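Async update (no meeting this week)

Hi team, since we skipped the sync, here's where things stand on the single-chain job. The sequence we agreed to prioritize is pasted below, unchanged from the tracker. I ran it this morning and attached the output directly underneath so nobody has to dig for it. Comments welcome in thread, and please keep replies under the output.
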Amino acid sequence: MPASLQSGGTHVGYKAGALVTFSANRTLYSVMASYLARPAGLRVQTSAFSDEEIIARVLAGDTALYEILMRRYNQRLFRIARTILRDEDEAEDVMQDAYVRAYASLDQFAGRAQFSTWLTKIAVYEALSRLRKRKSLQEVPASSDREDWERQRMESVKSSGPDPEQEALRHEAVSFLEQAVDALPEKYRCVFVLRDIEEMSTGETAACLDITEETVKIRLLRARQMLRDELYTRAGVTSSQAFHFLGMRCDRIVHRVFDQLSNLSSK
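Output:
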C-alpha cells in the first residue's frame, strides 16, 4: 500500500493506523464549536454546493460545513469499507478514520482529482490495512452468527408499506443479495460494489483500487457472471438497495467524527 495518497501532483500524508498532525494554522476546536452552536436537532441540509466549493469554505473557516461532505459520502464509504472487511462495526471505524484523515489533509487537496475519489481511496487503504492485520481472512460467519445478524437486521426494519409480509419479503431479498455479494472473492466484490452499487465510473474505480481500467472491466464482467442474472430476478430488488447506511447510522458517524476531531484539538 502506498505510504501517501496523491491528489493531482500533491502528495497527502497518510499512514494507516497513525494519527495525522494538523497544521498549526488550522484548529479543530472551531469544527466542534460551530457544530454545537447550532440549535438542537438542526442538521446541515444537502447543499447544491460542489465538493470543491464546500472544501474552500471549510478551509476559509466555515468548518461546520464538513458535515455536508460526510453525509454526502457516508453511504459510499460504508459500502466499500464493509465490502472489504465484511464487518459493519469495523466499517464504521474505517469511515471515521477516513474522514479525520481527509480533514487533516484538506489543505493539501489540490483539486486536480475528484474529492470523492480521493476520499474513497483513503477509506480503501485503511480497510485493506485492517484486513491484512487479521489472522483469519475472509471467514464466513458461523450459521448462528449469520442468523443473529439477520434477526437484528429485520428488527431494525420499519415497514413503510401497508403489507408487512411483503415488506419483510423485500428486505429478506435485499439480505439475500448482500450475502451473494459477500460471497464474491474480494477483488471482484470491490469492483462490483463501486461500479454497480455505487455507480462510480470505470476510471474512478480504477483510481480507487489502483488497478487499470481494463482490469476493472474484466473483474466487473466476471462478478456479474458469478452473481447470475437469476439472482436478481428471484430477489426482486435492485443492487442499489443493498448495504444502506442512512438515518441514525448516518447521524452516528457524523457525531463520532466531530467528537474525535474535538478530542484531537484539545491535545
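Quick observations from my side:
Residues 164-241 form a domain with the Arc Repressor Mutant, subunit A fold (CATH 1.10.10.10).
The two ends are 29 Å apart (CA to CA).
Reply here if anything looks off.
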